[in-house]
Structures are given as C-alpha cells and as structure tokens.
Specification:
single chain, alpha+beta, 5-stranded antiparallel sheet
C-alpha cells in the first residue's frame, strides 16, 4: 500500500476524528495520532464569540504538502491527513485536524506536533478572533 498524503481546506464542517482516523489507518501501523484544534470561548480574558478563517488556498496546500514532505524525511510515517476549515467556526467547533500513522508511537506523535506547529507558523491561513469587544487578525503572515 502506498503512503497517503491528504490535504483538505474547506468552508464545510470538518469530518469526524473517526473518519480521519480511518483514512490514516494501516495494518502495519502500531500508532495513530490525531490532533484537533477547536474554538475556545476565552482568550487572554476576552470572551471569544467565533473565529473566522481565510486562506490563500493554492499556496496553503503547497505549504502543507512541503511540511508533509519534511515530516516524512524526519519520521517513518505511514499516512498523513491535514484538514483545515475556512469561514466562521463557532465556539466548540473544530477548525483543524492533523492525523498521522506510523509503526511506532514516537514517530506518529512527533510528526503530528511538527505538522500543526509548522502549519500555524508557515501556512497562509489567517484567523480573525471575534470578541465581545472587537476582533483581531492572526496568522503566519501577520507574525513577520
């Protein structure tokens, strides 16, 4: 079986963790690691109403595939899936999912953390945090 690299960016709600876990499942994998990022209701003592995401989708997908390639060079991975929402994401809802599978848990866990950290640092996806008293844009391109 070939190694899967799945990248999806969508305005639609993300699939369930069970669905994404099945995508990266492999009979040769002893580990599957998932990460899901959700909208929390408070940030730095401010009440969060929602998050609003925008992406430069062609470049975001290119960057995500580069990060996946880097992950495969660092760790022995079976399959990788990265899903990200755009548009409005209400409190309690999921905006990003990362899933990895590998023979051993260390590779899967380290790769999942690397993928989400690099996504947040490098990917042209911006987040507007909407508070009761205003909003602020955040994202990789706002950090530099």
């Amino acid at each position: 079986m070939s190694h899967l690299n799945i990248v999806e960016i969508s305005k639609d709600p993300l699939p369930s963790l069970d669905f994404v876990t099945e995508l990266v499942q492999d009979d040769g994998a002893g580990a599957i690691t998932t990460f899901s990022g959700t909208t929390r209701n408070v940030f730095q003592d401010k009440v969060v109403l929602e998050l609003d995401y925008e992406a430069y989708e062609p470049m975001a997908k290119k960057v995500l595939f580069e990060i996946i390639k880097e992950s495969r060079e660092k760790w022995d991975l079976k399959h990788i899936a990265v899903y990200h929402r755009t548009g409005n994401v209400a409190v309690g809802k999921t905006s990003v999912i990362v899933a990895t599978s590998s023979k051993h848990r260390g590779d899967s866990m380290d790769a999942a953390r690397y993928l989400i950290d690099e996504l947040k640092d490098r990917c042209p996806i911006w987040k507007r945090e909407v508070y009761e008293d205003g909003s602020v844009w955040k994202g990789a391109c706002n950090q530099h």
